[in-house]
Amino acid sequence: MQLLWFIPTHGDGRYLATATGGRAVSFSYLRQIAQAVDDLGYTGALLPTGRSCEDAWIVASTLVSLTRQMRFLVAIRPGLVSPGVAARMAATFDRLSGGRLLINVVTGGDPVELAGDGLHLSHDQRYELTDEFLTVWRAIVSGEQVNLQGDYLNIQDGIAAVSTRPEAISALVVWRFLCDRPKNRCQACRCLSNLGRTTGASS
Prior knowledge:
- The protein is of the alpha/beta class.
- It contains six helices and seven strands.
- A five-stranded parallel beta sheet has the order 1-2-3-4-7, covered by helices on one side. Strands 5-6 form a two-stranded antiparallel ribbon.
- β3, α3 and β4 (101-105) form a beta-alpha-beta unit.
């Protein structure tokens, strides 16, 4: 069994759904939690994503040298970053951390928040975009050159010049399903197959 904890990059507190007793984000507190996760033998921790959170990739990068073995479950949001850039970020972090990266593919979300970040797609369209995104992402981290003319992405000679560890290509992926239609479930499963070995999916 693999157990993961949570890095509260949007603040922390004693009680759910209230700011009473809340605690603001500080680097010293995030470091304390990460080192506790590491010392207690958890597999790793989730770093959430959203406009109320500190950036997950930057926070993970600041904590990796302060820990020994915990893995960082970091979000990729298709539509807010290109698949080539995301693939290079993932390959770099995974290699420099010694293989401690996990990827959380986040397709769902608050439409108002997504619109604020410039993503104006419907629920179904976001899953279609994710299918294209992960097709490209998987190919690039596998060292392939990619050309794809899709409904949402137009990739010409996409490639990562940075190397990817072979074992990272089948990295653990945890998918946050927000599927209420059979079509979306099929798309989500196809997207997962584009990433190799998967586990921990929920609906």
